[in-house]
Amino acid sequence: MIAAREQEQYFTPEEYFAWEAKQLEKHELIDGRVYAMSGGTKNHSDIAGNFLAIIKPHLRGSGCKTYNSDCRVNILNTRNYTYPDLSVTCDQRDNSSTQYITYPCLIVEVLSPSTEAYDRGKKFEKYRRNPNLVDYVLVSSEEMAIDIYHKNEAGDWLILSYRAGDRLTLASINLTVAIEEFYEEIVFEPLPDGVEGGDLSP
């Protein structure tokens, strides 16, 4: 989650790596500017942890690698670096760097109200440039709701929406699982009085 611009100066990737190594917080590099990463909620952390706990064992022995929010993703053909909540790469080219991966097939972002519009819009616009990316997963931390931006074999992006009771498929890693598993032990804030099933209409 991007919080705010940290410095007015511009950074090259090399300057950014050296500078961030001395910081207490993580920062993303976007168009030469660094942005401090904001803290998340307990639900945000627990949901991201559930994804990792499900996906990492599923991929054991496959040659694919699963990374949590401590791993940077270099947006292909740019000098931008982000920290998604989870990423998976099956591309051997990513073994050449210890600082980041560049060819993820799966990216997961757990949403917050302050970053949802950015994650769905400009961030996806950047990520989708990568021909390796197959699934971009946006996960609500406020209700049981997951949207997958999935690239089909024709190269078209489809939006697949899943809610309680659904089984979702991550085609990028050949995994199908009940949505409830990703929300195990998650407690949502109660809805306002008079609101049912997430319907916020008057």
- Beta fraction: 25-35%
Shape call: globular
Which structural category fits the helices and strands?
A: alpha+beta
Mean pLDDT over the residues = 89
Strand order of the largest sheet: 4-7-9-10-11-12
Note the run of SSEs as H and E: EHEEHEEEEEEHHEEEEEH
The beta-strand count equals 14
Number of helices: 5
Low-confidence stretches: 197-202
The main sheet comes to:
6 strands, mixed
Query: How far is the first residue's CA from the last residue's CA?
Result: 30 Å
Give the fraction of residues assigned to helices: 10-25%
Radius of gyration of CA atoms, rounded to a whole number: 17 Å
Tell me what you see in this structure.
The protein is α+β, with helices and mostly antiparallel strands and 202 residues long. It has helices at residues 13-20, 42-58, 116-120, 122-127, 179-182, and strands spanning 2-5, 27-30, 33-37, 65-67, 72-74, 81-82, 86-89, 100-101, 104-110, 135-139, 145-151, 157-163, 167-170, 175-178. The strands form four sheets. It has a six-stranded mixed sheet, covered by helices on one side. A three-stranded antiparallel sheet has the order 1-3-2, covered by helices on one side. A three-stranded mixed sheet has the order 6-5-8, with no helix packed on it. The two termini are 30 Å apart.
Helix and strand layout, with pairings?
Elements (H helix, E strand, L loop, with lengths): L1 E4 L7 H8 L6 E4 L2 E5 L4 H17 L6 E3 L4 E3 L6 E2 L3 E4 L10 E2 L2 E7 L5 H5 L1 H6 L7 E5 L5 E7 L5 E7 L3 E4 L4 E4 H4 L20
Parallel strand pairs: 5-8, 9-10
Antiparallel strand pairs: 1-3, 2-3, 4-7, 5-6, 7-9, 10-11, 11-12, 13-14
